[in-house]
Each structure stands twice: as C-alpha cells, then as structure tokens.
Amino acid sequence: MAKRLVHASVKDERLIKKRRDQMIKGAVTLFKEKGFHRTTTREIARAAGFSIGTLYEYIKNKEDILYLVCDSIYDHVTERLEEDINYRTGNLDSLKAAIAHHFRVMDEMQDEVLVMYQEAKSLTKDALPYVLNKENELARVFEQMIRRCVETGELHLTETEIPLIAHSIIVQGQMWGFRRWVIQKRYTLDQYIEIQTNLILFGMTKSTKIE
Fold this sequence. Notes:
By secondary structure, the chain is mainly alpha-helical. The chain is built from ten helices and no strands. α1 (13-34) crosses α6 (110-119). The longest helix is centred in the middle third of the chain and has 24 residues, at 128-151.
C-alpha cells in the first residue's frame, strides 16, 4: 500500500522533516491532554514553536498531522528493528532480542502510541487503511522470525498459532504504555520484558524459561 502524500509548499526535504518532527512532538502532547478534536492547529503551531502560517507550509489540515503522528511511529519502530536486530536470523536468541527491542521502543514512544490508538478513528478514509497495514507489516516481521524458529525446532507451534503469537508480541509491547498507571508501578521495564517474553514464547504451563 502506497504511502499517503502529505502536501508541502516547501521543497527542502530536510526542512520538511525537521518542521514535521516539531509538529508531531507538539501535537502528541496536545492530543494526549485535550484529544484530537479539541486541539486547534494554532495550538499545534504554538507548541511546535512557529506560526500558524508556517505550519500550513508543511501540511494542509489537522488530519495530516494525525496521519504523520501515526506514520512516524511505525517508521521509527521498523527502522530501529532493522538497525539493531538481525530479524532475518532464524534462531530463538534473535527473536528474544527483537521482542525486547520492540518493548523498549514502545516504552520510548508510549505517549505517541497511546495517542494513535485513541485518535486513529479520526484518520481520513484513505489514511486509516495505510496505518493499519503498517501494523500488519510489523507483525509479519515477527511472524517471519517465529516461523524460522519453528523450522529449526527451537519453537513448537502450529501454522495457525504463529500469526497470533506475532500479534500478541505487538499488543503486549503496547500494553506497557496503555496500562502504565498500574503496570509501571509494579514492574521495571526489564522485569516486564522477561515475564512477557516467557509467557509469549513458552506459555503459563511449560517449564522452559529464558536462559
């Protein structure tokens, strides 16, 4: 699915990225506090550190900013995964490392992820399928890694179970931020990663544990 084009009258790609990153940061704070519909573009411009006129040089409307917030999350997660983890390696250690990496990125971006799920319903009809497909692409990365572990005999899962486990990894990473009001009071991030990785990969009744 093709990336949705967000109009900008400015032609300098580096400046576009810089200004849009500023918009995203300001918008996330406001969307979290006030919600998408109650936040104005003027408030976003002020939070980003420039005028409303400058803001409209980089987007056409407020919906564009929400789309950029959502798109940037998955781009960031995927880029970090590709940079730090050899996800094409079919072994259990690389899968565990990828899970831990994903959870740590979700910790870093928990405000953005929370806003995305709260406000995704406000995305335009052409933007929502693209954003949802980005999450499916991320799940397919984990699905590929799990399948290779099954092929090498390090995991024992059916073909039906593999996609569900991949999506469970995505959701459990996001849950660290969604339920932070209680989970982060009881567990450190390292503890959360260890417990969830054991549960995801080995279940609640098997004796195998992470070495």
